[in-house]
Amino acid sequence: MKTELSYQELLKTSPYKPVKAKIVKTNKYTEFEKLFRIELDGKKDLEHVPGQFVQVSLFGVGEAPISVCSSPTEKGYFDLTVRRVGGLTTAMHKLETGSVLGIRGPFGKGFPLDAMRGNDILIVAGGLGIVPLRSLIHYILDQRKDFGDVQILLGCKTPKDMLFGEEVEAWQKRADIKFNCTVDRADPDWKGNVGLITSLIPGASIEPKKTYAVVVGPPIMYKFVIVELLKKEIPGHQIIVSLERKMKCGLGKCGHCQIRGVYVCQSGPVFTYDELRQMEGECHEGECHV
Amino acid sequence: MSKAKPKVAFFEFTDCEGCQLQVANLGADLLELTKAVDIVNFREIMSEEGQEYDVLVVEGSIASKHDEERLKAIAAKAKVIVALGACAATGGVNNLKNLKSLEEQKKIVYGDVDPVKDAVAAKPIDAVVKVDYYVHGCPIHGPEFVKVMQCVLMGKPYKVPTYPVCVECRQNENVCLYDKGQFCLGPITRAGCNSWLPNNGVPCVGCRGLIDNPAANAQKDILEKYGLTVEGILDKFTLYCNAQKERAKYDKEFKS
Amino acid sequence: MKYAIIAKKDMPRWFDSLKRHGKIFGPRKKEHQYVFRPIDEFEEMSLVYIPTILPPKKYYFPQKEALLKFSIDPYKTDKAIKEFEEYILFAVHTCDIAGIQCLDVVFNDNPADPNYLNRKEKTTVIGIECMDYCDSHASCAAVGNHVPRGGYDIMLTDLDGSYAMHINSEKGEKLAVGKSYIREMNATDRARLKKAQDEKLKKFHNEFSKDIKSVERAFDDGFFSPVWQDVGRRCVGCTNCTAVCPTCYCFDIADEMEMNLNDGVRTRTWSYCQMDDFAKVATGEDFRPGRDGRQRHRYYRKFKYPVTKYNKYFCTGCGRCTRTCMAKISLVETVNALLDNKA
C-alpha cells in the first residue's frame, strides 16, 4: 500500500477513497460479535500484516477502524470480526452475504513478525483482543515450523462470550501448541479455569530471553498482565501490545488517535512495552510502569 | 424505489407550535422531504388527519395527566419517536411553572377557578415514552431537523453535538460577545444550531440545553472576570436549563 | 526583478490588476476585530490590523470541505471537487505565512493530501510585513516569525509613501512585471528598506522569559508540571484556542446525504483536541479525559511534537489563542510558567 504516488497521480486518486468490497460470508458468534468474510473488488489481496487494521466504509453512515482477523496467508479474502457498539458497527451488523461496502487500508504497523520468527510465542488474549490475535495465530499455524514453542492464553467474561468456538476447540486439540483459557464467571457447563487471565501467567513455562509475549485486550488488562510478564523477566521490547484509539483518517493527519507525539494509526496500533513507557502519562496502558 | 414511503405524523402538546412552524418554513427542503416520506398528520400545513404512521414527531411538553395518556396512546402506534424542540426534548420554557407548587401556579394563572384539575409538573416527553431522536432548540434549527429526519429514514442514530455553541460561533467568525461585555451561554450550551443567535449579534440563551460535561468552575471564573454575578448567571439558566441534571454541577460549584 | 517599489497611491491600480488572476481575499474590519473576506475594492481592506479572528487557513483548509462523492446503490465514488479556483491572499502577516508553511509540511507528508495540495497550487500569497507589534498578545519574535521568512509570492514592506516589494516566486513576478507604476528598487530604496527593517527590529523582543531552546527543554521536562493542572482548571472547554490557531489541522470525517438518501458526500470538518469526545472511542472509553491533559496536548502540539517530527515550531506567535480565550489563559504566561517551574 505504501507505493509513492507522483503528484499528478495524487490529483487523480485520493487516499480517502475506499475500495469496493463484498461480503462473501458471515458468522454471528454472539449477540454482539459477528464475523464478515470480505472480498475486495477483483479478488485482490489486502496484503496486510497481522495486527493491522482497515477503515470500513458504509456510505451514508461513515467509517470505522476494524482489525483484520485473518492471516495474509489466506488468499482472496480477509476476515473482520465486529463488535456492535457504535453507529457504523450497528449498521454493519445488519449486512449479510452479498452486501457491498468500502475498504481503505490496511493501515498501521502490525506485529513484528520478522523479529518474532524463530522465538517462542506467548499469546495473551483478553475479551475482544482475540480478534487481531486470530490473524497472528492463523499466520503462525500456517508457518508453524518457523516459530518455537507457541502458547495461547485466552480469557473472557463468560463461556458465552467466547469467540471462534470451533477454531478454539481445534487449537486445544493440537499437539504443537499449548492452550489454556479462563472465564471471569463460569456457567454450569464450564469445566475449565475460572478467574482473571493474569492467573494463567505465573504457571506458564516461559524461557524469557527467547519469548515474545503478544498481549491484546482491554486497557485495564494490560496493566496487570504486563506486571506478570515482567515478573517472568520477559524483556520490554519482547512484550507486544495493540492499542485501541479513535481513528478517523488512518493517514496520520486527523489527530484523534494521537498519544503524545505518536499517531497510533501509523506508528501503531502495535507497540512494544518499551515504546509504551516512552508515552507515559498520555497512555493508560503505559501507566503500567513498575 | 418501489418501497412504501414511511408515514410521518406531527402531534403537539403544551407549546407554541413554533417548532412545527420552523418545519413548515423549510420550503424546498420540506418538499424534498415529502419525496421520501408521507406526512399524514401536520395541522400547520394540512387539514387531513391520518391515524396510521411509522414516525411520530412530538412537539411540546407534558403538563397534565391527560397529556400523559394521550402521548402513550399515540406513541404506541409509532415505530420511531422524535422529540421536536426544547419543550419536548427537555421541557423547555414550560419548566418555569415548576418553580412554584401546582397549587400556587394555578392560583397565579387561573385565580379561584381550576380548569385543569389533572395538571402535573411540566416534563419532557421522554419522562413518559422512550425517545429515539432529539431535535433541540427553541425553536428548532431547520437544517438540523432535516438531518435528523435523514437519520430516521436511514435507521441510523443522530448524535447531538456534545461540544459548545462556541465551536460553531468561532467557525462563523463572529466577534465573541464576551469581548463586547455581553453575557452569552454559548460556552456551556450544546451546539447544533450553527450559532444562530450570535450570528445575529444576540447572546445565546441556552435553549438547546447544557453540554454534557460542563466546566462549571471555569465558567464561574470567567463570569466573575467579566463582572457578572453568580445569581445573574443562575438566573439565566432558569429559562431553559433548570430541569437538566447538568445544572446541579453549577449549583454546587457556584454556591460553594 | 527581485525587489521593486510601488507608491501607495498606486496600490488600488495594482490591486485592480490582480483581480484577473483570481478572487482576492484580504483583511477587513469587523466591529473591533478583523476578518479575511473577499475584497472588491482596495479601500475595503485594513492593511494595518490585528490578526484576524480566523487565520487565512479557512481558504486552503476550510471549516468544512468535501473529500469524496458517493452513491450507495449502485456503489460509486467520484471526485468531490472537479476544479479548484485560483485565488490571492492579500496582506497576510508573516505569522500567518508561517502557519501556511507548517500545514504545507503536514499535508505533504506521506500520504499527501490531495485537497490541500490542489488548493495550495491555486493560492497566491501576498504578505505584508508588520513594522511594530500588532498588540501585546503576539509572541512572533520568540519563534522568529516577526520577519519574513519565505512562503510568499510577494512581500510588502511599508516605506511611508510607498511599499517595498520582495518578489519571491515566478507567480509573484508575473503579478508585478509590466506595470509602469512598479519600478525596480535602486540603491537609495534599498538603504531605506534596510533602515526601516532595522528600526523595526528594535521594537521586537523575545516575548518569553528565556530563549526558544530553553522553551524546548522546558517542554521536554514539563509533561507532569503543575502548570497543566492550573491551565486545565481555568479552561472552560469552549475550544476557541484550537479553532483560531493557524496550525491546528485536526479534523473529523462524516457523510452527508442528499434527500434521495442514496447519493452523498464524505466531508471533513475541523475538529479540536479540546472537544469532549475528541479521543473517545465507540465503547465510551475516553483516552484524554481531562481539560488539563487536553490543554497540555495543545501546547505540546505547538512546541514539542512537531519539533521532533518536522523540526518546526507549530506556534507561529500570532497570539490568537490568547486573544480569544475567555478564561484569559495566555500562551506567553503559560510558557513562562513552565520555564519558571523548571528553574
From TrEMBL, chain A:
GO biological process assignments: pyrimidine nucleotide biosynthetic process
Cofactor requirements of the protein: [2Fe-2S] cluster
Pfam families for this protein: DHODB_Fe-S_bind, FAD_binding_6, NAD_binding_1
Keyword Magnesium attached: no
Keyword Iron: yes
Molecular-function GO term, any one: oxidoreductase activity
The protein, known as: NAD/FAD binding domain, oxidoreductase
Residues at which [2Fe-2S] cluster binds: C249, C254, C257, C265
SUPFAM superfamilies per UniProt: Ferredoxin reductase-like, C-terminal NADP-linked domain, Riboflavin synthase domain-like
Keyword set, alphabetical order: 2Fe-2S, Iron, Iron-sulfur, Metal-binding
Organism of provenance: Velamenicoccus archaeovorus
Cofactor annotation comment: Binds 1 [2Fe-2S] cluster per subunit.
Domain FAD-binding FR-type: 16-113
PROSITE patterns reported in the protein's UniProt record: FAD_FR (PS51384)
Residue ranges of coiled coil: none
Automatic annotation (TrEMBL), chain B:
Transmembrane portions of the chain: none
Occurrences of domain NADH:ubiquinone oxidoreductase-like 20kDa subunit (ranges): 16-149
Gene3D superfamilies hit by this protein: NADH:ubiquinone oxidoreductase-like, 20kDa subunit
One Pfam family it belongs to: Oxidored_q6
Recorded GO MF terms: iron-sulfur cluster binding; oxidoreductase activity
Highest taxon in the source lineage: Bacteria
Keywords (A to Z) from UniProt: Oxidoreductase, Ubiquinone
Alphabetical list of SUPFAM superfamilies matching this protein: HydA/Nqo6-like
PANTHER family: COENZYME F420-REDUCING HYDROGENASE, GAMMA SUBUNIT, HYDROGENASE SMALL SUBUNIT
Name under which the protein is recorded: NADH ubiquinone oxidoreductase 20 kDa subunit
Organism whose genome encodes this protein: Velamenicoccus archaeovorus
Taxonomic lineage of the native organism: Bacteria, Pseudomonadati, Candidatus Omnitrophota, Candidatus Velamenicoccus
Automatic annotation (TrEMBL), chain C:
Membrane-spanning ranges: none
Keywords: Iron, Iron-sulfur, Metal-binding
Record domain 4Fe-4S ferredoxin-type: where: 224-256, 304-334
InterPro entries (alphabetical): 4Fe4S_Fe-S-bd (IPR017896), 4Fe4S_Fe_S_CS (IPR017900)
Domain of life: Bacteria
GO MF annotations, alphabetized: iron-sulfur cluster binding; metal ion binding
Entry keyword Iron-sulfur: yes
PROSITE patterns in the record: 4FE4S_FER_1, 4FE4S_FER_2
Keyword Iron-sulfur applies: yes
PANTHER family associated with the record: ANAEROBIC SULFITE REDUCTASE SUBUNIT A (PTHR40447:SF1)
Designated name of the protein: Heterodisulfide reductase, iron-sulfur binding subunit, putative
Organism expressing this protein natively: Velamenicoccus archaeovorus
